[in-house]
Here is the input.
Amino acid sequence: MIDLRKHSSRHLETKLILPIPETKRYEREIHYYLFSPPQLYVNKNTYSEERLLHKFQSHGRYSSPEITLEELLDARNNLSPLTILKRYTDDLVKDVTSVPERNVIHELQTVVNSARHENKACLQDCKDMVKLGMVNDLEATLDAWHTNATMLCSTIRDLLEAIQAKFSPDNRLLLAFLWADEAISLLCEKHAIDLYMASSTFQQQMQKTLTNLLSFSREEMEYRSEHDYPSGSTNSETVQYRKAILKKWTQSSLYLVPEVSRWPKRVSEILAGTAAGVAMAFATLTTIFAETTFIRNSFQWAFIVIIGYVFKDRIKEWLRLFFKAVLPRMMADEISSFLSPKTNKKICSSRIRLTFEDVDDLSAYVKEIRKDKNNPFRDMLPKEDVIHYIRDLTMHPLTKHTLQRDSFPRENNFTLVTRIRLDDFLKEMDDPNDVVFRMDPNADELDQLSSERVYHLHLIIREYSKKEDLDNYSHYTVVLNKSGIVRIEQMPLA
Here is the structure.
């Protein structure tokens, strides 16, 4: 299932999680159908396909490790990044060159990523318990999280003390421990507040538990201030910026190395050269025919030569369209791969195409999904402009890496994040605010109302795999005004 959310006022973001296969590769097709109102003029006459393709930006990464705080803190769990980090620290205390710096930093980042993922899962569980009124289970979950979070912070700080005794203040390894400590503290402070707010409905029943969460949050804030961490500042802008820096740093261990192929450009150049050659050959043969049949510089000679050069340009364009129709996979707009930073082997291969489609040429099911049942006169209105973005994905197995699953058990899933920039859809929109007058229903006078002009951009997403008998659709309405995205509504398929 592909998740869609608002990333910013002008960006949509989709997230697709795919398991990394162990022995056999598999494929997915992802289709995005963007239905744009005709009055916005986002069509093939005003925008090139290449320009709109740049509005779809993607990056691939490993999914965050799914390790509970209990598993993370379990000293007997040899797969826990915290257990590995303890072993690395013991080795470094004995010999500062015993462990590669990159290995230690990777485990520090993984500890933070694991805590972030578990905190999100815990918060969602607590929200569900609040809805169901499960007070006892909720209290037990909050107490367990508080205990585990306190132990996690304490463990990281014990390791930090050991490293501080062996390394100079400007050493990269020590700085990595300091950054991880600050990131864990920020996560715990924020999550304690989030849990408190989510559970405040049961303030009377869980007063001690909720008070402990607030105290823990305050202690973490004071801890960062005492240790002169940037996020301990009283300036909210500084704190927010620091949070973003730490998040990017910790998640950098998950990002896969992108490699864009030059093949589409080369194929495009070859086909363009072929089309130009055929067109030039026609023009040359036409000129030869004119030379041998008519007197040079005569009216007939000039007419034939001009006709030849007119058709030369048309032949180039016709051949370009022909190649694009007959060789769609070779004419992919972009071919890329996501490589493992450990093995430099492919995790995922990707082929992208973007085309403008006519509404009448879409599949019957897509047209049925888009059908506006509230407007029986849609066929009398101008047709919507449809942008069709296609991504073919191939997931490559771990056996291609000469590594087995137990060599990197935490990296089981691939996450593809795609951001769609909508600024081109906003240019022709009317101003968002207007004033509407109507009769006041409670008095004999005019009532003035503020009205907001909005537009609906429909998005249909399809995830397809023939071999796996998978064909999932989802339909969203993106409500926009000139300032950007107002909201996203999921629509029923039936």
